[in-house]
Design brief:
Distance between the termini: 16 Å
Largest sheet: 6 strands, antiparallel
Oligomer: single chain
Helix content: 55-70%
Radius of gyration: 67 Å
Strand order of the largest sheet: 2-1-4-5-6-7
Shape: elongated
Number of helices: 14
Low-confidence stretches: 654-686
Mean pLDDT: 78
Structural class: alpha+beta
Order of helices and strands: EEEHEEEEHHEHHHHHHHHHEEEHEHE
Length: about 675
């Protein structure tokens, strides 16, 4: 297809409607920085591919902020080599969604139909890609449109796998790569499904192992010597169970409920036996307790209380005597105190009188016998005068006190005996109440205290007999259950054998299916490996065809003084194709598959231009017969710039040697702030 014209409005740097005539072998766009040269080229890419990869998937940044209509609109007119009627591609972004239409001689196509017709006309190979628009955009940005801000991306930033994918698209192996990816995803899903089915069989295998273990256990059980059960004995046993008070119902020996019924009866028998075994020791202990109560003699509370009354009377009488003696002793002590006080007063008077004795009496002033008086007074003052006889204390009181203490002790002992006797009687009464309560709990009915012991002894004897009867009945029931179990084991063995056989057949079928799925997965893996090798061979062969042109362009630009040879290196790593750009020094045999480590920034830009031009010219059928370069020269130094200009000059003079038409951004004159636009070929010249 040939670029004829471009009309855009509200797109990036173009606020108003602008129309550009592109119907020429070479078109140079010159303008100052920021005047919209890149927007012009992006409009062509957006019109054809519907996206600008470096700007992301969102179309919102494409609309100019100063758009008169609020929309971004691009209309690109393309012509055919055969001179037939051209077609016009129009894309419009209204701020919310993007619409596309293609105008052909047959009419106007819109939406997916327009996208399909555009891909068929521009590049049919993209139609079979998983994402046709993305595949077309990749091919355009790798062989037709060298974007200004992504000059070095293909040889520097992009991974080796991405470079391989881009070249695969250009040389026609992209669909093989897509098929390989789809097969890998399908194989992964296939493998996951296979593994899931295999995991689902593990519980089945475990259940089979459990059934086989159960079958071996049943076969290993000993079998009864008796062929069957006596129905008469069976019926009598059930009647006996009902007579023992068990809540059971007789069932036929051949019924399906026989096993569960016998198990229930055995459980009741066991519970009843255990209850009787717990009851018997309690009855035996109660028997011992009643025997002890019967042998015990109760105290005579009446005589004990009579002793207390007699002791109390004796104590009262003795206390009265003690009180009388204590009163008489108090009177004697009073009289003795009075006599003592009188004696002390006389001594004091005698001592005072001795101080005042004279010829006459100091009191009555009469004559008296002074010597005799003095001797008498001195004797009195010395306490030597004989006082009046004083009464003596009674000697019966100590004996009375001792007798009273002894009597009070006897009274306390008698009262203690009464309290002890009363407590004993209360204990007996409480024990009688407790025994009556326990008798009721045991269900022993008595009419009087004397019947308690015989009744309890009889109850204990009956309980012991019941224990024996229950144990015998339980053993008989367990024998019945064993025989029923042995009969049931035979049925269980047959059922397990049938189920095991069915499970084995199912597992065998599933294992066969899993084997087929595994073989299919292996076959798919072989196909994937073959596709990888085929894609690598195709890309390698086509790259070899491009390498001479790449080397020729690289040498004419003279990118590096030592690393003068460049080539593409293809390989497959971890199932993915890899493409590396290798530069080498032919004189020293030194090479590097990472050009950025040996080339300067300007030299890397020059290598990127060489790679782009070689792919543009070396691919037999690019999406467009055009080369669009967005100002790459500003990224080159003077030497590489002159080399590129010389290449373009030679291409112009020797068109047969180089099939080159390019849109090239020229560097402005020194000191100028403008950059001159783009040289573009609208068609190839041979």
């Amino acid at each position: 297809m040939r670029l004829l014209s471009l009309e855009l409005a509200g797109f990036r740097g173009f606020a108003t409607k602008q129309t550009f005539d592109l119907d020429a072998d070479a078109v140079i766009v010159v303008g100052a920085n920021g005047n919209g040269k890149t927007s012009l080229f992006d409009a062509m890419l957006w019109a054809i591919a519907g996206c600008i990869p470096r700007l992301g998937p969102d179309d919102a940044p494409l609309a100019c902020k100063f758009s008169e209509t609020g929309q971004a609109r691009v209309s690109l007119r393309l012509g055919r080599k055969d001179g037939s009627s051209p077609l016009t591609v129009t894309r419009v972004f209204d701020g919310a969604r993007t619409t596309v239409s293609v105008e052909t001689p047959e009419g106007v196509l819109r939406g997916p139909e327009a996208e399909g017709r555009l891909i068929q006309q521009i590049w049919k190979e993209a139609a079979t890609a998983a994402n046709p628009a993305e595949a077309l955009a990749t091919a355009l940005t790798r062989s037709v449109y060298l974007q200004q801000d992504l000059v070095r991306e293909f040889v520097d930033s992009v991974t080796a796998q991405e470079r391989f994918g881009a070249v695969s698209e250009l040389v026609g192996a992209g669909r093989v790569t897509d098929l390989q990816g789809e097969l890998e995803r399908a194989k992964k899903a296939w493998s996951l499904a296979t593994n899931s089915r295999a995991a689902e069989l593990e519980p089945v295998r475990g259940r089979l192992a459990t059934m086989e273990s159960r079958l071996a256990e049943l076969r290993a059980r000993p079998t009864s010597a008796e062929a069957g059960l006596d129905e008469t004995v069976w019926s009598e046993w059930w009647v006996r169970m009902q007579a023992m008070g068990l809540k059971v119902s007789a069932v036929p020996i051949a019924s399906r409920e026989a096993t569960s019924a016998i198990d229930n009866a055995i459980m009741q028998l066991d519970a009843a036996r255990r209850a009787a075994e717990r009851r018997w020791p309690l009855l035996d202990a109660l028997t011992q307790e009643l025997s002890g109560i019967a042998a015990r003699t109760l105290p005579d509370l009446t005589s004990l209380r009579g002793k207390v009354a007699t002791a109390q009377q004796h104590v009262q009488e003795t206390r009265a005597k003690v009180s009388a003696e204590q009163a008489r002793a108090a009177e004697v002590r009073r009289l003795q105190a009075e006599l003592k006080e009188k004696s002390q007063q006389l001594q004091a008077l005698a001592t005072l009188a001795l101080k005042h004795l004279g010829e006459k009496c100091p009191v009555c002033d009469q004559d008296y016998n002074v010597d005799a008086t003095r001797r008498r007074l001195e004797l009195t003052a010395a306490g030597g005068s004989t006082p009046a006889s004083s009464p003596s204390l009674p000697d019966t009181l100590p004996g009375l006190l001792e007798s009273l203490a002894a009597q009070e002790k006897e009274l306390s002992a008698a009262e203690l005996d009464v309290r002890t006797a009363e407590q004993s009687i209360r204990d007996v009464e409480a024990a009688d109440l407790a025994i009556d309560k326990r008798l009721k709990e045991f269900g022993v009915v008595v009419t009087g205290p004397l019947e308690r012991l015989p009744s309890v002894v009889a109850a204990a004897r009956d309980t012991n007999l019941r224990i024996d009867d229950l144990a015998t009945a339980q053993r008989t029931g367990e024998a019945f259950a064993l025989r029923l179990s042995q009969v049931g084991d035979q049925a269980a063995i047959q059922e397990l054998e049938r189920e095991i056989q069915t499970t084995r057949v199912t597992l065998q079928q599933e294992d066969t299916e899993l084997g087929k799925r595994a073989a299919t997965g292996e076959q798919a893996q072989r196909v994937i490996e073959a596709l990888r090798e085929a894609a690598a061979r195709v890309v390698t062969e086509r790259v070899k065809e491009v390498e001479p042109l790449l080397s020729d362009i690289y040498s004419r630009i003279d990118v590096h003084p030592a690393f003068r040879v460049v080539r593409f290196l293809t390989s497959v790593s971890h199932g993915r194709g890899q493409l590396a750009t290798v530069v080498s020094d032919p004189l020293s045999s030194i090479q590097s598959d990472s050009p950025a480590t040996v080339l300067s920034s300007s030299q890397m830009n020059a290598l990127a231009v060489c790679t782009f031009l070689s792919l543009n010219l070396g691919v037999s059928r690019p999406p467009l017969d055009a080369a669009i370069l967005d100002d790459p020269l500003q990224s080159l130094d003077d030497i590489n710039l002159l080399g590129l200009i010389d290449l373009l000059r030679r291409a112009k003079d020797q068109a047969a040697a180089f099939r080159l038409h390019a849109r090239l951004a020229l560097r402005p004159a020194s000191g100028s702030q403008a950059s001159t636009g783009i040289v573009r070929t609208a068609n190839r010249c041979d």
